[in-house]
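Is this the right way to post structure tokens for a design question? Let me know if I should format differently. Anyway, here goes:
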């Protein structure tokens, strides 16, 4: 394709009244010629072409050149959006406010995270006593020139003398662990490599951690990860001397993580075959046991060890309780018939339980909003801890001898409040409030319940300026996830506020597949029922249109990771319903996702193309395989990153190439933005977050036919 496309339209500018003027022309360069070959696989008698499989080899010279060419087309397009710089200026201004994390106590010191405003990474501070002078304990901004090295985990030894620090580079899931002397803040010689999905669990003179063997050179970010192992590292020794604690040679595709109870009595190993279902192994260290006993057999249910009470273990589980319950289990008699209910299953989702000051603290979700309760150690509710309103609270947690604890609260219009909870008075007092550079009181949040295709009511949050007119003309972005038992609860986003200021409407649908109502809600949107999630999202869009919030011409959709799959599936199933689609770091090839890094762990959620029954439903919605040539798809900006070793960029590469080829002649733009030195999202520096948001909202507003209005 060598011809140049021109996007023309009508731009509405609001001044003293409403005026229309001719819209600026944007030149869309010809897409790169993406080679197609004859690669194909046959699944249970069904041949499936895979002409862009060569794009999976992300380090190959041909792929590197393709990435450069695609990024050039994308940046040339985005550079022409007349208000792009104004969006970046506004984002930079409103992003620039101090952001604090909740304090936590280690020995005589309180530690907390703070970002002054535009620092790439939050800095870890410490101070002696609540009224002490804060000092920098560790500044990750000094670990790299561009802020792409982030703190992934921080863990203190039982005697508070040492701190194990996990760091990640360029957004990769790979972590390196080093050790600091707390008193001197000096880095010790200890260094641990090839850690993934694990921090340090301290015990006496060292710590447990999980790792994989060193990957093949050049394939660190794409090859399948197998044979995770748990090691114990003794301070002062080399990693080569670390003691192998647990492995399972018969099951290469399992995760293993070590935990230890606060009193150092029980060593816990959490085993999982994927993102759902677990098995718990236990060793009583006080009895010098050499092997592990099975406390909870996997993998039909979920189990999380909270702590122990003497020789018994407290655990949160969905066994015969899809909204979860807390049970007390004797490792000598672990059968379910012997369990003691401490906090029984209730009407709301029991999201988490923690201990502090010899009390239990529970966090519930009621229609995707937090509720906090204090219990005695027998499980009896002592009181509900009042919260400022509908929003999300972090759980209260601490040590058995603590007299205070901290928790945070946020909502769509509340940038964050930190509360100090006094266990002697059972009172929560405001400790610190975040101040921002705009009036959050100008916006409102409502929660609606709309019917999905099968009649089930699905909750959705809708955020917008107060007094907005429901005339079907409002630019709207619908966001969703719908998977992996993850709940979408109220949270504050600076990036989102920039859109709301422009008169935009932001909607978040709590789709099935998520965890908002427990395991039944999760299971209603997984495996062969995954289409239900897409139906829920499509129904959310139809609700917004029918209720005159917006129209198809003013509706954008976005989701990341599993949410990227959601966007890809819905835009291929209902291309007429949306004007703009932004699938970010998405799982878009449902037939091969399990062949990369830790993708095999998602088979419990999605199924696998290696099963005939599961192939039959995967092929029906896999975004890559359901693009139809000549269809008019929404204006699409595919977003990914070169160091994403969670959902490898090959998904986005192949989908973008196929979508560019399938898009109707003179159809909407199909672009791919491939970030460098970035991963799946965690640890991304502020500078990159602002760049991402700038391009995201520039593309959305422009393709929804909107201008950027100056904000005072």
């Amino acid at each position: 394709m060598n011809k140049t496309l021109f996007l023309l339209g009508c731009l509405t500018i609001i001044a003293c009244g409403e005026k229309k003027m001719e819209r600026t022309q944007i030149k869309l360069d010809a897409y790169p010629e993406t080679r197609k070959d004859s690669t194909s696989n046959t699944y249970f008698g069904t041949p499936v072409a895979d002409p862009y499989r060569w794009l999976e080899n992300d380090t190959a010279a041909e792929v590197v050149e393709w990435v450069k060419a695609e990024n050039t087309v994308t940046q040339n397009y985005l550079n022409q959006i007349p208000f792009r710089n104004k969006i970046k200026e506004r984002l930079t201004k409103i992003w620039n406010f101090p952001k604090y994390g909740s304090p936590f106590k280690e020995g005589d010191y309180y530690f907390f995270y703070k970002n002054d405003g535009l620092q790439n990474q939050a800095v870890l501070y410490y101070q002696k006593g609540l009224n002490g002078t804060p000092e920098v304990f560790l500044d990750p901004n000094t670990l790299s020139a561009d802020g792409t090295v982030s703190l992934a985990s921080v863990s203190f030894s039982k005697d508070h003398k040492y701190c194990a620090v996990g760091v990640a580079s360029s957004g990769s899931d790979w972590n390196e662990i080093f050790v600091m002397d707390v008193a001197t803040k000096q880095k010790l010689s200890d260094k641990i490599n090839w850690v993934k999905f694990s921090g340090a669990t301290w015990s006496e003179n060292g710590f447990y951690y999980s790792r994989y063997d060193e990957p093949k050179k050049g394939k660190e970010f794409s090859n399948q990860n197998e044979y995770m192992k748990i090691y114990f590292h003794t301070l002062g020794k080399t990693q080569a001397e670390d003691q192998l604690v647990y492995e399972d040679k018969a099951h290469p595709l399992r995760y293993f993580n070590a935990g230890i109870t606060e009193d150092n009595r029980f060593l816990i190993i959490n085993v999982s075959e994927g993102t759902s279902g677990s098995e718990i192994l236990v060793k009583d260290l006080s009895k010098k046991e050499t092997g592990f006993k099975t406390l909870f057999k996997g993998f039909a249910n979920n189990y999380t060890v909270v702590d122990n009470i003497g020789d018994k273990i407290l655990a949160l589980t969905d066994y015969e309780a899809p909204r979860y319950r807390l049970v007390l289990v004797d490792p000598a008699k672990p059968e379910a018939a012997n369990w003691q209910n401490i906090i029984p299953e209730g009407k709301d989702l029991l999201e988490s339980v923690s201990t502090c000051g010899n009390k239990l603290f529970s966090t519930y979700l009621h229609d995707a909003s937090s509720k906090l309760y204090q219990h005695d150690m027998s499980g009896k509710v002592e009181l509900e801890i009042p919260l400022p309103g509908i929003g999300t609270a972090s759980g209260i947690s601490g040590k058995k001898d603590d007299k205070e604890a901290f928790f945070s609260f946020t909502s769509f219009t509340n940038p964050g409040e930190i509360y100090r909870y006094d266990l002697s008075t059972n009172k929560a007092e405001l400790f610190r409030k975040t101040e921002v550079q705009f009036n959050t009181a100008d916006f409102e949040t409502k929660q609606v319940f709309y019917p999905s295709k099968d009649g089930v009511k699905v909750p959705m949050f809708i955020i917008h300026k107060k007094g907005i007119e429901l005339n079907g003309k409002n630019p709207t972005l619908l966001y969703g996830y719908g998977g992996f038992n993850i709940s979408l609860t109220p949270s504050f986003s600076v990036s989102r506020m920039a859109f709301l200021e422009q008169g935009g409407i932001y909607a978040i649908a709590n789709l099935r597949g998520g965890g908002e109502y427990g395991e039944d809600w999760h299971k209603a949107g997984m495996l062969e029922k995954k289409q239900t999630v897409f139906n829920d999202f499509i129904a959310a869009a139809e609700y917004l249109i029918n209720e005159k919030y917006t129209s198809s011409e003013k509706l954008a959709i976005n989701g990341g990771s599993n949410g990227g799959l959601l966007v890809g599936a819905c835009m291929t199933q209902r291309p007429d319903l949306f004007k703009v689609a932004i699938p970010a770091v998405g799982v878009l090839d449902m037939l091969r996702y399990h062949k990369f890094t830790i993708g095999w762990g998602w088979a419990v959620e999605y199924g696998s193309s290696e099963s005939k029954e599961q192939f039959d439903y995967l092929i029906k919605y896999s975004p890559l395989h359901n693009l139809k040539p000549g269809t008019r798809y929404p204006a699409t900006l595919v977003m990914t990153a070169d160091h994403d070793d969670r959902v490898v960029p090959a998904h986005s590469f192949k989908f973008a190439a196929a979508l560019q080829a399938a898009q109707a002649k003179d159809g909407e733009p199909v672009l791919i933005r491939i970030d460098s030195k970035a991963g799946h999202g965690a640890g991304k520096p502020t500078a990159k977050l602002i760049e991402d948001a700038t391009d995201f909202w520039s593309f959305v507003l422009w393709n929804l036919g909107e201008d950027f209005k100056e904000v005072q």
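Format looks fine. Someone answered above. Worth noting: The longest helix spans residues 61-79. The chain has a mean pLDDT of 94.
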